[in-house]
Each structure stands twice: as structure tokens, then as C-alpha cells.
Amino acid sequence: LKVLEDFKKKEKRLKMILRNLTKLLMIIFEKAEINCLAYQKANALSKESEIARKEGVIANISGEINSISPCLLERCPIHCNTQAKNKRGADSQNNSACSSPIKTKSAKTNENSNFITPSKRLTTKHPQAQQSSQPQILLKNAFNGLTESSDEPKPLPINIRITENYNLLLQEINRKFPGTENKHSNGYIKTTPKNSDDYRDITKLLKEKKQDFYIMVPRDERPIKVVIKDLPIFTDTETIKTELEELRFVVNRVTQLKQIRTKKPLPMFLIELTRSPNAEKIYNLTHFMNLKIRIENFQKRPGYTQCWNCQHFHHSSATCQGASRCLKCGENHRTNECHIKERMETPKCINCNQLGHVASWMGCEKFPKPKPPATNRQPPTTFSHRPTDNRTYAETLTNRQHPNPSTTIDFPALQQMAPLLQQSNSDTADLSISELLNILKALNALRVALKQSPGMLAMLRNIQRCKTGPEMFESLLKDTVNPPDK
């Protein structure tokens, strides 16, 4: 039975080999046809497509032949190991059945890795890199000057309120902190320290001497102020602050805006946030507390800034380091902490010491006034290069005038009216505002009188028709005796 099974396997194997030989013959015929097509004078596109089809057939047959084992014995130990290691080298090295590979001197074969090392005469020598005797060229980066500077930024100035003994204070500051610059502006002395250490020590010295001053906050450290609109007017500010903190905003304060005169609350809420990258996202907020809202930048009231702490100008209470002053009683506390809650009938200004107004009144003599516009500006001088009269170049040099009768027109009526117009202009220029008001009042009284007595208007019309003085007088007497109806 075993012999019969082996015979059947060999028979099956031989049939497979015959089929492969048939395929090899087909490959030979296909290549012969390809060569014939190459020499034929046919359509180039059809010839190329036919050659490509035949080459595809040859590739398919070759793949089927390469998949066959090179040995007729089943599980041959030599060819099975070789095929498992390298299928490509098995067909070329083991053409004879079960024959061991022959080692030659020209090709040394490593049985473990199946790697053939070439002989020495077939290898080339690696040229050694010659070291250059010239010194290396040092390259310089042209953008080194654009690197960020490590110098400390100059601190912002300290604004000290000027007093009678300001010179003694400046002498002490310059003696202890050399290099400090001082400049007077708007009733304050701007003191610019040399570095941040001097800035800290100068502010400490001013606090010890109880000097009124204010500092300036850098722009990148100032808080962001926005206004939330379209919220209900009765919304609690603490609720708004809590909701914003849940959105990861660092909220400094929330204030409801009010009208200036009536102090009536408005549906607008001022939000002050600590400046950070996340704080800028508040401008993208369109819905808040389940309502659609609007976010706008806070616009302060136009005019000069007045401090709520010291009641002086040109700075805010957030940066003020001076003593507090009450707007009502003048004591050393803020106005919102004053015991006087009602309106004062005769207030006293703490800046100018006059009765009848408070320090926040814009009509106070100490309140900053806008600078008047410059009045000494001369109008621009224009030069015209066009000729103004018909004169030749020679007449212009000799300063002679050449009248042209065809273009000269006399207007006697206008010439007679010119002095009258000049006189009327001079008369109206001499009139003051009070005189104009008196004339308007008189005209208004005349209008009322004519409206109450329509016959007077007819009398004036009759007088207007008269040419001489006696005729006017006669018409007036006639209308007085017999007044016209209308």
C-alpha cells in the first residue's frame, strides 16, 4: 500500500511537471509573437497594447512555475531548508536532485547566513579622506543681533504731588538714588528711577514721609474692563461674579452702572478681569446665564479723570497713594464712608475753599480746563502764476498799464452803491449783541401791535406809497381821522 501511494504521488508530480513544460512552451511562443509584432508595421497603439497583454500572460505563467518545489521527493531536508531560507537562491543553486552544494575558492559561502563574500580581487579599496591642512572658516550668524535683549526694562515714572518744600525732597532722592530724572507736569513731579530697586525704595521713602503720589501700571498688567448688556436690571452682581468664575475667569469686581443725574440703575454691568490669555475669551461670549448678551469695551466718561480717593486730577483711585479726602466734609476718609448722606445746601469745595459747589464741579477754578485753540495761525499764502491783465513783458518791466477798451465795463450804479454797502457793513460791525437783542425785541412788539390792530398795517402801506414828507403827514392824518378797515 505504501508503494502504491508513493507511485500515485510521483505520477501526480510528473503530470504537474508536464503541465509546467507546456506552460514554458507557451512562454516561448508568446515571446516569439512579441518579436514578430515589434518588426511589423502596424498601428502603434494596438501593437503596444498587444505586447503588454502577452507580457502579462508570460508573467502569470512564470509565477506559477516558480511556485513549484525544485525536488520531486516530499519533505526533502536539503531543498526544504533552502527554500525556507531563500526562495530566490533555491532555484539557481539546486538544479540537480538532492545534490550538495559545491564550495569554490572564488565564492566563500557561509552556511549559517547563506551570505557569499566576494574575493579580495573583486573588492575596491576605500579611499581615506585626506585631512585638509587649511584652518576651518568660522561662520557668523547675521541674525544674532535680533535676539532678545536681557536688559531690564526701564521702570515707569512716579508722580509726586508738588508742595512748597518739593526741592528738599528732590535733593534727598537724588542724593540717595543717583541717576534719577525729575520733570514737572500738571502740578506733579515725574520721578523716573534708574532701575526697579530704586523704584521700590523711592516709593517706600515717599510713604514714610507721607507724600501724596500716584504710580503708573504697565499696559500689560492693567485689568480688562468690559460691559455686559441685555441682562435683567435686577440681576445680582454676586451671581454674575460666580457664573464668570465657573467659566474660569479671574473676576476682580462686578458693578452695575447707573445714570449720572438720577442715579437710576441701568441694565449694564461693568466687569473687571485680571489680564490673562483666558481673559481675552470673554469677547467671544454670546450667551450668559441662559440669555443672549452683548459684550462691549468699557468707555469711560469723556473729560479729565478725578481720583475718588484724594479728589485730585489726572489719575484714578486704583493707583493713588495719597491721603483720602472726603468730597463733602473734607475729612481724611473716602466720600462713600462719610456720615453725611443727605444733599448739602451750601457745600464747600476742598480744592478752592469756596462755598456753593463741590470739588467735582466742572466750573470750579481748580478743575482742569481744556487748552484754547491757537489763534495766531496765519492763513496759508497762495501764489498764482496766471496773468491778471493783458500786458506785455516790456510793459510789465516798465510798470506801464495797458487799458483794453473792449474789456473795460463801467457800472455806475454799482460804484454808487459801493460806499453805501461799505457804510452799512461798518455800521453793522459796530452793533453789539445787546443792541441786536433790543432791535429784535422792538420788532417783536411791533408784530404784536400789528396783529392786534389790522388797520395800522394799512396805514403803513398808505404812507409807503407817498413820495414826499408832506404827503406822508397828510396820509397819516387822514388815516387817523378815518382809519382803514384792513
Automatic annotation (TrEMBL):
Pfam families associated with the record: PRE_C2HC
Domain named Pre-C2HC: residues: 238-301
UniProt-listed InterPro entries: Pre_C2HC_dom
Highest taxon above the source species: Eukaryota
Biased composition regions of type Polar residues, renumbered to the chain: 91-136, 375-389
Region (Disordered): 85-136, 369-389
Protein name (Swiss-Prot/TrEMBL): Nucleic-acid-binding protein from transposon X-element
